[in-house]
């Protein structure tokens, strides 16, 4: 026996040294409520979504526009304090259609499939953001297509204030 019993692999044991059967009990569904402070940049970004605006940060030295906003430029390493509005339209940079269901961390239930996860560069931005698209047939999607944000009816200051992006059909 290991003198440091803490590190003993108990998964192979089926009974205690006294002969009692080791049982397993399922605790059922647990829910953890938590809050955390988002800070100035994320607070301002999410407040913009509530007002149907995509707010990005712009570097005063190189002019790089970051969507999602960030505090420091990745090229110049300077603090960014200039805010600009970008989008709500942009270019599809990449996509994947998910057909395998899994547990959605937003609500604990199964994720509805299929769904399309996209990378989109909003007009006026130099970086892309990830979101969802309402099109689930890859034959109808092509990198380089124009996309438009569709806003949720009720907005609360969350990334879900953008319900999804749709293809702009001319």
Describe this structure in words.
With 170 residues, the chain is mainly β. The protein has one domain (39-167). The chain has one helix and eight strands. The chain has a five-stranded antiparallel β-sheet, with no helix packed on it. It has a three-stranded antiparallel β-sheet with strand order 2-1-3. A hairpin with a 6-residue loop joins β1 and β2. The relative contact order is 0.15.
Topology of this structure?
Layout: H1 39-50, E1 54-58, E2 65-66, E3 82-86, E4 89-98, E5 115-122, E6 129-133, E7 146-151, E8 162-167
Antiparallel strand pairs: 1-2, 1-3, 4-5, 4-7, 5-6, 7-8
Give a short synopsis of this structure.
This protein is mainly beta. It has one helix spanning 39-50, and strands at 54-58, 65-66, 82-86, 89-98, 115-122, 129-133, 146-151, 162-167. The radius of gyration is 23 Å and the shape is extended.
The succession of helices and strands, N to C, reads HEEEEEEEE
In angstroms, what is the radius of gyration? 23 Å
Please tell me what the overall shape is.
extended
Major beta sheet, strand line-up: 6-5-4-7-8
Number of domains: 1
The helix content, as a percent range, equals: under 10%
Main sheet record:
5 strands, antiparallel
Structural class: mainly beta
Mean pLDDT, as a whole number? 86
In terms of per-residue confidence, which ranges show pLDDT below 50 for 5 or more consecutive residues?
none
Number of helices: 1
Give the DSSP E fraction (strand runs of 2 or more residues): 25-35%
């Amino acid at each position: 026996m290991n003198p440091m019993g803490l590190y003993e692999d108990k998964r192979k044991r089926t009974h205690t040294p006294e002969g009692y059967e080791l049982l397993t009990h399922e605790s059922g569904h647990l829910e953890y409520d938590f809050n955390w402070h988002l800070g100035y940049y994320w607070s301002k970004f999410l407040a913009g979504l509530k007002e149907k605006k995509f707010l990005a940060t712009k570097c005063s030295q190189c002019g790089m526009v970051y969507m999602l906003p960030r505090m420091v430029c990745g090229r110049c390493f300077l603090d960014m304090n200039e805010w600009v509005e970008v989008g709500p339209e942009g270019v599809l940079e990449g996509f994947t259609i998910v057909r395998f269901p899994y547990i959605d961390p937003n609500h604990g239930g199964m994720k509805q499939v299929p769904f399309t996860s996209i990378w989109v560069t909003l007009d006026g931005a130099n970086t892309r953001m990830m979101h969802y698209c309402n099109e689930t047939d890859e034959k109808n999607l092509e990198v380089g297509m124009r996309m438009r944000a569709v806003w949720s009816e009720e907005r609360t200051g969350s990334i879900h204030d953008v319900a999804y992006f749709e293809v702009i059909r001319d």
